[in-house]
Structures are given as C-alpha cells and as structure tokens.
Specification:
The protein is of the alpha/beta class. The protein has a single domain, classed as Spore Coat Polysaccharide Biosynthesis Protein SpsA, Chain A (Alpha-Beta Complex), CATH 3.90.550.10. The chain is built from 6 helices and 7 strands. The protein has a 7-stranded mixed sheet, sandwiched between helices. α3 runs antiparallel to α5. The longest helix is centred in the middle third of the chain and has 11 residues. It is globular.
C-alpha cells in the first residue's frame, strides 16, 4: 500500500482576501484551517505549512498535526510548497497530497478519492472538477526534488507538472474545488 502524507499550504497573507486565510472563519465560526486539516484525515500524516501570522495559526492546530514555517512565505505559494516538501522525511512516504487552505468544499471524500490514485513514488495525479484540473494534487516522492527546484512565485508545481502526464481524478460529483479569494 502506498503511504501518503497530506501537505496543507496555509502560509499566505491573503492580500486579496483581506488577511491570512489560515485565520479565516465561515459565518458560522468554522475555521478554514481546521476544516482543511480534517479533509486530510485519509492521509497517513498531516503537515501544515504556515507563514503569515504563523504563531496565531499554529495555536489553532491540534498537537497531532505537524507544522513547518515557510520563512519566505511572502514570495508566494511556490515558497510554501518548497518548504513543505523539503521538510518531509523523504524515506517515510511514497507521495504527498498537496492542498490549499482556501478550498471550502474540498473535504475528506475528495481527498480519499485522490489518495486512492496513489500507485507509488512515481505517481502524479490531481483532482479534476468537471474535467478541469484543480487541487488537491498528488505528487510522488520521485518528483519532489523536481518540484522543489521549479516551484516559484504563485505557480507552485504548475511548471513542473505541465510537460508531464498527470492522471486526473474526477471529483466534480463531490465538490466544485473553487478557491476563495475574496470575502
């Protein structure tokens, strides 16, 4: 069986949003950070990458959830992804399932479906919503070094994935996968 670690990127300042999304709450009080952590429960372990307001966000997390700080978080999602993948014990997992804190309807059912596509350390797969690629993205360990090398700005793994065959896992029946950029 393939071992998958969940990697939650939650480091940004949320400039367009009006504050760090790791600290955001729904009108009913639901924490986006905790909802995102819960969505990753199908993974063997969960690692959260924090940055802006890291101490305040870390205080929300259960002790069982590992956290790392992206000191260069202001550079963009690429910095968070590099920090997160670099912090993982590379020999412990076959793949990392990367997701974002601002995907309110991406839940454990979506994550479980994408994790089921894990076939080993060479896997590349991602959720699709009505055929449109989105998050979460499943990156096999064989690809981590390449992603770390190419992740820049707000592009994350996009440039690394573009020329490669990435299996799409249809999840449009479970969620929209739409990220929230404004209140």
């Amino acid at each position: 069986m393939t071992s998958v670690v969940g990697l939650l990127l939650a480091a940004g300042a949320g400039a367009r949003f009006g504050g760090p999304k790791a600290l955001a709450r729904d009108p009913d009080g639901t924490s986006w950070l905790l909802r995102s952590v819960q969505s990753l429960r199908p993974c063997a372990e969960i690692v959260v990458v924090l940055g802006a307001e890291a101490e305040q966000a870390a205080a929300l997390l259960p002790m069982s959830v590992a956290r790392v700080r992206a000191d260069d978080w202001a550079e963009g999602m690429g910095a968070s992804l590099r920090t997160g993948l670099s912090a993982l014990p590379w020999s412990a997992y076959d793949a990392a399932l990367v997701t974002l804190v601002d995907l309110p309807d991406v839940d454990a059912a979506v994550v479980a479906r994408v994790v089921a596509a894990a076939t080993g350390p060479d896997v590349l797969a991602r959720a699709a919503y009505d055929g449109v690629p989105g998050h979460p993205v499943l990156i096999g360990r064989d690809h981590w070094a390449g992603v770390v090398e190419t992740a820049t700005g707000d592009r994350g793994a996009r440039d690394y994935l573009a020329p490669r065959e990435v299996a799409l896992v249809e999840c449009g029946d479970l969620a929209t996968g739409v990220d929230v950029d404004s209140r």
